[in-house]
Amino acid sequence: KQEVTQIPAALSVPEGENLVLNCSFTDSAIYNLQWFRQDPGKGLTSLLLIQSSQREQTSGRLNASLDKSSGRSTLYIAASQPGDSATYLCAADYGQNFVFGPGTRLSVLP
Amino acid sequence: DVKVTQSSRYLVKRTGEKVFLECVQDMDHENMFWYRQDPGLGLRLIYFSYDVKMKEKGDIPEGYSVSREKKERFSLILESASTNQTSMYLCASSLYLQGRDNEQYFGPGTRLTVT
Q: CA-nearest residue of chain A to B34?
């Protein structure tokens, strides 16, 4: 069964810290790995998409890496800000099926 | 920018009612998806469509049906709403399946309460 897990489930850090969110997937036959942000009561906002042939993608203070053979992706957030507080989800794209992780709830304290 | 819109942000319906949730995307995407999101269960795929009039069941299709008569519009139908269908419903679209740029874009969600 294709499953995606995320560690930690929740994280609280002081403003300015660099942090890493982890995503693991059981089936490495992915096409893409996508990271999302979700604010409470809202939809998902796409942050980064890494194609299976890529190792990493960067957007501003965000950097996502992908190790397909080991079934892992990480999202690195540099110099965190209170506005980064949200739930972060990863999703593995298996073609006709996207499998989502449960998310990491991030709180950045001023 | 891709825009995915959903017809309602909040909806309250009674048990047994027929409920329509509408989703529209403006980027000529091939694929459209309906998910529900529940605490502790994450996002679960209900149905998806890869072309007009085409549909595929997701993980939890029971109690739901869908309609895609036009490329930009994908409707989720609850034939007879029940309290266990109280949830956040999220619509998404993407350019094409099994593609290199199959990025999913989500709408703002509809919070449905069935009483």
A: A98
What pLDDT, on the 0 to 100 scale, is given for residue A1? 82
Check if the beta carbon of residue B48 is closer than 8 Å to that of residue B62: no
Interface contact A100-B42, CB threshold 8 A: yes
Report angle CA A99, B71, B105 to the nearest 5 degrees.
35
Q: Which of B58, B88, B104 sits opposite A46 (nearest CB)?
A: B104
Residue B99 has pLDDT above 90, yes or no: no
Q: What is the pLDDT of residues B30-55, one digit of tens each?
A: 999 999 999 888 899 999 999 998 99
Average pLDDT over residues A54-63: 95
Chain A, 47 to 86: residues with Cβ < 8 Å from chain B are 49, 51
* Cβ-contact B56, A96 below 8 angstroms: yes
Q: Does B102 touch chain A (CB under 8 A)?
A: yes
Strand partners, B56: B48
* pLDDT attached to residue B42: 87
> Which pLDDT tens digit goes with each residue over A2-50?
899 999 999 999 999 999 999 999 999 999 999 999 999 899 999 999 9
Question: What is the distance in angstroms between the Cα of A28 and the nearest Cα belonging to chain B?
Answer: 15
Distances from the Cα of B23 to the Cα of B51, B73, B90, B111, angstroms = 15, 6, 9, 14
B99 interfaces chain A, CB cutoff of 8 Å = yes
Residue of B nearest to A9 (CA): B40
Residue type, A71: G
